[in-house]
Amino acid sequence: MSDNWDVIIVGAGSAGIPTAIFAGQRGARVLLIDADKRIGGTLHWSTGQLSAAGTKLQKKLGIDDHPDWHYEDCQRAMKNTVDPVLGRLAIDNAADTFDWLMDNGFELAPEMPVAAFGHEPYRVRRYQWGPNQALSVLEVMEPLLDIEIGRGNVTLSLETKLTGLVVEEGAVVGIEAEARDGTFATIRGQNVVLTTGGYAANPELWADLTPDYPLRSHCNPYSRGDGIVAARKIGAKVDRGDMFLCTFAGVMQDPDDPLSVRMG
């Protein structure tokens, strides 16, 4: 794995997998690594609820909707605390994302879409999920990733942990990684994408980045913030530690273990 890759993607979850798919489809030589034994990341833990305005499905069902209405509903439900830049970025692209999943075989649970589940209702039916929760999303993406692996455009390396970023003349030119057998390697790439997800399985990092809230988490044990740690080591700014999503109906099984939360 010492070749100079076009793209190195760290984290094979809901962000890293589509990044690898699209880069591979464009002919890039892609290395996708993950510390876990399987791809999917938090998709194995999430309910996979998706909301999008202006989708092909809504139009087919005669539902009139617009991203502006979606954004207004989100701000209303969240008491105007949605980040205006990140919120619009996600909401304005949600329909394209959902349509892409549907075009590639995403299956919906019965009676989807709905107006609400677990929060204030949207003004129209724009909320949906698959019968296998977030695994329904993985079931769409994994075959597409396998195609790019089969074409030789994507190389997948599991049980491979990011340990650092390689910097030369102020630019990131690769990664340092630990393989499953305990060996270390320097892997060079023209582009490095960090899609390692959250950090709720790292109590020390949580205390550092989110000190005002106690850690109580139902999360993937590999959500240790390896990308955040590596980026900070080379001077990257990390903020928004106060912006967090608590677990719905979570119950701690062990009062001494903040990661023992199970969903109710």
Describe this protein's structure:
This protein is of the alpha/beta class and 264 residues long. It is 29% helix and 20% strand. It has helices spanning 16-25, 56-60, 67-77, 84-92, 94-103, 135-150, 203-209, 226-233, and strands at 4-10, 30-33, 50-51, 127-128, 154-157, 161-168, 171-178, 184-194, 250-252, 261-263. It has a six-stranded mixed beta sheet with strand order 5-2-1-8-7-6, sandwiched between helices. It has a two-stranded antiparallel sheet with strand order 3-4. Strand 9 (250-252) and strand 10 (261-263) form a beta hairpin. The longest helix has 16 residues, at 135-150. It is globular, with a radius of gyration of 19 Å. The N and C termini lie far apart (43 Å).
Report a brief summary of the structure.
The protein is of the alpha/beta class. The protein has eight helices and ten strands.
